[in-house]
Amino acid sequence: MLDMIIKNGTVVTAESTFRADIGVKDEKIALIAAPGTIQEKAAKEIDAAGRYVMPGLIEPHMHVAAPFGGTIDVLDFYSASKCGAFGGVTSFMDFSTTVRGMSVMQAVKERLDEMSHAALDYSVHAKFVEANSKVIGEVKELIDFGVPTFKMFTTYPGVMIEDTDILRIMDEARRCGGLCGFHAESNPIAEFTREKLAAEGKLDWKYFNEAKPNACEAEAVQRILTFAEYLDAPVYFYHLSTKEAVEMVRHAQARGVKVQAETCGHYLTLTKEKNDSPDGINFLMSPPLRTDEDRMALWGALNDGTLSLVTSDNEAFTREQKESFLDRDENGNLIVDFRKPVNGTPGIEERFGLLMNAVNNGTITLNKLVEVGSTNPARVFGCYPQKGCLEVGSDADIVVVDPEKVMPLTAENMHYGLDYSLYEDVTSKGWPVVTIRRGEVLVEDGKFLGKESTGRFLARRL
Ligand code: DUC
Ligand code: ZN
Ligand code: ZN
Hints:
By secondary structure, this protein is an alpha/beta fold.
């Protein structure tokens, strides 16, 4: 007896599209067979006629319950599971909240403890903020523990790590089989430009973009690529946003540098004009939104494989929270100052819709959607083929998508509990209607059925 059959659907993987029925038993995919040929009975049947059946999406870049800029975002790992599951996500990864003087392993374990409230399967990237001998010694320990992917920041005093320490960690990660990932923005360019704009009285939201020009990303990406090439170490870039960075990564890959990189849904679909409005405060994220030329370069890079993942960099703050950083004039009006509000935007739920729209307008194929949203996150971060595919023996993480279901990506329809959406004017045609994590239905008939603390730690190996 099977636990579940999903029948009559069109299976979509990163490589192919075909009609098949899928049988699930003991949390795994037990059978993939021609339609109507599975003889075994099942405790639950899902009729996926006219629908796509895909591997569950993986969100490897989000910040949940993450203290940042003197505040904390609105989600916890259970509410983030709900937002994710509605958007077809079945596994997610966050970052350790490492501070100086702290054991990275301890930071990872504390974070995993918080993440254990999730209904999605979860993992964490280890954040390094320094490289003393104790921390260097933890690199192998983390890899053996199932956390082989690391994050470092080249900006944000407090978490920013010095270049020499980056080299030390990169070298040890290379030796032990880990992967260093980077938030790559030039701190000197960001600080210098911010001060210059402020001295000229340029503090409107639109100057947020100018304060971190394309060169800000490009300088840091080039520096990290030089380090990677020098050490022959693999590297990963989070949230690339510029045509310059994409071009550098493309050339580095052609030279044999082991570099992989992502972009995010917002850089693919929004441009900096969004900041030039009274609602500009809602669109403050780092790196900032760019031009249409950058946006098109990112799609091109996804299609030629230079970029291999699309993530959300989800970090959800209310508008009130963002505005609380601003001063008021004598009449009580907010004094706009792009330097002050916390940066970060929601997106884990909308990611599917942004990619689906790109499928519908012919920018990417449906297989590409699966590749950049599920299969490559699993491959790059070391949990393939347990996750990221529909294969016999893989975890039964499955999304059933109704290609006709229309979903306006408004604040009202999303599940963050926020009073705004970056995509108030965007509607997805095609939306997940059933989300299944290890054989357990998390979303069906528009309801979230996931139970708190049912997610499982995903030990990963590269
Ligand atoms: N960028 C943001 O906008 N917020 C959180 C962290 C980051 O890198
Ligand atoms: Zn970042
Ligand atoms: Zn981030």
